[in-house]
Specification:
Strand content: 5-15%
Number of helices: 9
Helix content: 55-70%
Low-confidence stretches: none
Oligomer: single chain
Number of strands: 5
Largest sheet: 5 strands, parallel
Order of helices and strands: EHEHEHEHEHHHHH
């Protein structure tokens, strides 16, 4: 279930926002104290954090920075008053996804939250893909890893064979095994997988 964390020192705002988001089908966790979020909230299970930029006990910018260190992919939406727009823009430059200027219309709230949730799900899907890809990569033999690295340069089998000191036929066999183990249909997919694994193709 989609989970939103609300952080604001004003109980009335927490109550109003929480009720609206729950009506929209979200699970909502509210906090008046940002430190409690930093100390005990399960950020990995959260889909978005809505954070007030000015609170008596905490600097919203500092909280944003600490949240990003904990979970860089977690979307953070800053909530700000009329006089804090410049500060909110600075927060976006520092990694916040968006900001809501109080009082904000219901449509604006829902639009921002939906976009944040969609981004979080995309990040999670990419993370799952990278994990599965890394598991496939671990199945390669040392020689297959060498062929894999040569393949992403776009070199023909004869050149790869020369570079590795083996025959073109041997390269062809290992190339087929690499494609099968990685689940790739063509060279373009192998190149994309290499990039995902942190291997930059070099010609």
């Amino acid at each position: 279930m989609t989970r939103i964390i609300l952080v604001d020192d004003d109980p009335a705002i927490l109550d109003a926002l929480g009720s609206r988001l729950e009506l929209a089908g979200y699970t909502v966790e509210t906090h008046e104290d940002a430190q409690r979020v930093l100390d005990s909230a399960d950020l990995s299970a959260a889909d978005c954090i809505m954070l007030d930029i000015r609170m008596p006990k905490h600097d919203g910018m500092d909280v944003l920075e600490r949240l990003q260190k904990r979970d860089p992919a977690l979307p953070v939406v800053m909530m700000t008053g009329h006089g804090d727009v410049d500060l909110a823009v600075a927060a976006i430059q520092k990694g916040a996804m968006d900001f809501l200027e109080k009082p904000f219309p219901d449509a604006r709230l829902m639009d921002v939250v939906e976009k944040a949730v969609a981004r979080r799900e995309t990040d999670r899907e990419e993370s799952r893909y990278r994990t599965a890809l890394a598991a496939k990569a671990e199945q390669r033999t040392p020689r297959e890893m060498e062929v894999f690295r040569e393949l992403v340069t776009g070199q023909p089998n004869k050149v790869i064979a020369y570079n590795l000191g083996c025959s073109p036929r041997t390269v062809e066999i290992h190339r087929a095994r690499v494609m099968t183990k990685m689940g790739a249909q063509n060279l373009a997919e192998i190149v994309r997988m290499a990039i995902q694994l942190g291997i930059q193709p070099e010609t």
